[in-house]
């Protein structure tokens, strides 16, 4: 009988670093679409995309986390749903879903580079995966007053 609770994460790369979101918040992954810039938006927001008739903000996750992005031919957009928001993040490469247990997550008091945006580091074999906190990342990007009724920053 296993005492540690299992969970799944969605693993992707930003630059050379593997990162993960809770799989429950990821709704889809698409090829990099045409992104329309939005005047006066935050520097970490690349713009918006048309996703099946919905306007969805596209966030530069690398810039938000302060890491190198490095353009690739394999760029994808990961669409997430957080509370009432639908937001997408530009990533270099998608790895897929990974099953983990709590014992594989090293909770760091403070990871200087990512701060509260990081829940910890997942250790899977030789791999080290930065386990990101979507709520903290989005909380830093917007506040309730900045989020319009149309859902565009």
- Listing every helix as H and every strand as E from the N terminus to the C terminus, the arrangement reads EEEEEHEEEEEEH
Which stretches of 5+ consecutive residues score pLDDT under 50? Answer: 144-153
Q: If you compute it from the alpha carbons, what radius of gyration comes out, rounded to the nearest whole angstrom?
A: 16 Å
Largest sheet: 6 strands, mixed
Termini distance?
A: 47 Å
Protein structure class: mainly beta
In DSSP terms, counting alpha (H) and pi (I) runs of 4 or more, how many helices? Answer: 2
Average residue pLDDT: 85
> Order of strands across the widest beta sheet?
8-1-2-11-10-9
Helix content: under 10%
Proportion of strand residues: over 45%
Please describe the topology of this protein.
Elements lengths: L5 E9 L2 E6 L3 E6 L13 E7 L2 E7 H5 L10 E7 L2 E7 L1 E9 L3 E2 L11 E7 L2 E6 L1 H8 L12
Parallel strand pairs: 2-11, 5-7
Antiparallel strand pairs: 1-2, 1-8, 3-6, 4-5, 6-7, 9-10, 10-11
